[in-house]
Structure formats: structure tokens, C-alpha cells
Design a protein that fits this description.
By secondary structure, the protein is mainly alpha-helical. It is built from 7 helices and 3 strands; from the N terminus they run ααβααββααα. A 3-stranded antiparallel sheet has the order 1-3-2. β2 (about 55-60) and β3 form a beta hairpin. The protein starts with a helix and ends with a helix. The model has no long low-confidence stretch (mean pLDDT about 90).
Length: about 120
């Protein structure tokens, strides 16, 4: 019962739903998720940690990047929850906006912008 409650708590926060929906589309790094959701990096990292601990996502190192994606070994319970979330939230305006942004997000451009911003300050 405790594991199932942890899973439900993980999906009880709107931004975590948004992250799951993005990661269903494709793997992303923290900077890409931050860019799409317009939240602080520390907030995104906290959400990712909760989703990872609940068994929804995994991280995968790719060179200097850490990509987050939906776990390929997701259990039946989490899979059913993820399916329900996808069905119930697929027409939410904010999620549609997020999913539209995912097409143009580019980690290299984001890092370049961040580097330029730091030089200006």
C-alpha cells in the first residue's frame, strides 16, 4: 500500500504531470524541461527526483548531459496511472502548449543563452 500511495502523491502535483507528459513524448535534460515549464532548475530537479523515486522515470547519462525518460521497466500499476493521466489530461491547454514547445527546445541554444546571460551580469 505504501508504494501505491507514494505513486499517487508523485502525480498529485500539476508540474509533475506536465513533466510526465513531456517525457512521454521524448527524453529531455533538466535545462530543456526548465525552459519549457519556466520553473527554477532546483524545482525541476526536485520534481524529477520524486518521479524517479516513484518509479516513473529514469536518468541516463549521454556525454555531459543527463537525460530523463519514462522508465522502460515501469511496473503495471505505474503504467496504468500514466495511461490514465495521458487520457484525462491530453486536452489540457497548458499541456498542449508544453507539448508544442517540445518541438523547438534545443539544449545547445539554451546553454548558449545561459552562458551569454552570465557574461552580461
Amino acid at each position: 500500500m505504501r508504494k501505491k500511495i507514494e505513486v499517487l502523491k508523485a502525480v498529485s502535483e500539476p508540474n509533475r504531470i506536465r513533466i510526465l507528459m513531456l517525457l512521454k513524448k521524448k527524453p529531455l535534460c533538466v535545462c530543456e524541461i526548465t525552459s519549457i515549464l519556466k520553473l527554477n532548475t532546483s524545482t525541476i530537479s526536485s520534481h524529477l527526483s520524486i518521479l524517479k523515486n516513484a518509479g516513473f522515470i529514469v536518468d541516463e547519462k549521454e556525454g555531459k548531459w543527463i537525460n530523463y525518460k519514462i522508465s522502460e521497466e515501469i511496473d503495471e500499476y505505474n503504467s496504468a496511472i500514466l495511461e490514465v493521466i495521458s487520457d484525462y489530461f491530453s486536452d489540457e491547454p497548458q499541456l498542449l502548449i508544453d507539448l508544442d514547445k517540445i518541438e523547438n527546445v534545443n539544449r545547445y541554444s539554451i546553454i548558449q543563452l545561459q552562458t551569454n546571460d552570465k557574461r552580461c551580469k
